């Protein structure tokens, strides 16, 4: 039976509340990142570097919505921790590149394992069929909002 505009609005309010509670519960279960002193923006940067290769620090600043000096500080701390390496451009000495190191890849692997373990615990209340349907529906919403076709 189709929803009325009022019932759809009520459903969206319930969804918003449920997703907020779920996000808080998952965040509360998250352990501190495995590298002592690693901030969430630093972990995000490491993920970007792993997914897309080396990046200019100016690009990192833009994507994070921070100043160039703030991004430089984040990059410096990642380099000091051995998670990323800085490299000056040969063509333009003003350009500084940041690239993930093997230690950075190891860190991402550990954090990914922990995140998947926590997700498994949180979603253990679903049957296999329910989990597959949930994944299908979330993927549909994600892809629709990215304006990409849904993979077969």
The structure class reads mainly alpha
The arrangement of helices and strands along the chain is HHEHHEEHH
- In terms of DSSP E residues, the strand content is 5-15%
CATH topology name of the domain at 37-120, in short, is Arc Repressor Mutant, subunit A
Described by the principal axes of the CA atoms, the overall outline is: elongated
Oligomer: single chain
Radius of gyration based on Cα positions: 20 Å
Q: What's the tally of helices?
A: 6
The order of strands across the largest sheet is 1-3-2
Quick overview:
It is built from six helices and three strands; from the N terminus they run ααβααββαα. The chain is mostly helical and 152 residues long. It has a domain at 37-120: Winged helix-like DNA-binding domain superfamily/Winged helix DNA-binding domain (Arc Repressor Mutant, subunit A), CATH 1.10.10.
List keywords for this structure.
single chain; 152 residues; mainly alpha; Arc Repressor Mutant, subunit A; 3 strands; 65% helix
Give a written overview of the molecule:
The chain has helices at residues 5-29, 40-52, 57-64, 68-80, 102-122, 128-146; strands at residues 55-56, 84-88, 96-100. β2 and β3 (96-100) form a beta hairpin. The model has no long low-confidence stretch (mean pLDDT 86). The chain contains six helices and three strands, in the order ααβααββαα. The radius of gyration is 20 Å and the shape is elongated. Helix content is 65%, strand content 8%. It is mainly alpha-helical and 152 residues long. α3 (57-64) packs across α4. It has a domain at 37-120: Orthogonal Bundle (Arc Repressor Mutant, subunit A). It starts with a helix and ends in a 6-residue tail after the last helix. It has a three-stranded antiparallel β-sheet with strand order 1-3-2.
